[in-house]
Amino acid sequence: MYTTLVYFIFLSGVTSFSTTLNLSDFFADQSHNFINFLEERGNEMEEAFSSSYARAMKMKNSFDSYVEEQQNKISTEINSYIENVKDRGQQLANSFSYVQTQDAADALPAPDAALTVPARIARLGYNCETHTVISQGYVLNLHRIPYSKGGGNISSKTVLLQHGLFASSADWILNGPNKALAYVLADAGYDVWMANVRGNVYSAEHTSLKRNTKSYWNFSWHDIALYDVPAVIDYIMKLKGEDTQITYIGHSMGSTILFAMLTLRPEYNRVLTAGYALAPVAFMSDIKSPIKALAPLASNVAHMEMLYGSHEFLPKNSMFGKLVTSCSIEYADHKLCRNAVFQICGENEKQYNETLMPVFMAHFGAGTSWKTIVHYAQEVVAKGRFQFFDLGPWNNKRIYGAETPPEYDLSKITLPIKLFWAQNDLLSTEMDVKKLQDRLPATTDVYLVPDPKFNHLDYLWAIDAPSLLNNEILTSLQKSFNNFTNN
Question: Residue 457's closest CA among 363, 331, 316, 325?
Answer without folding.
Answer: 363
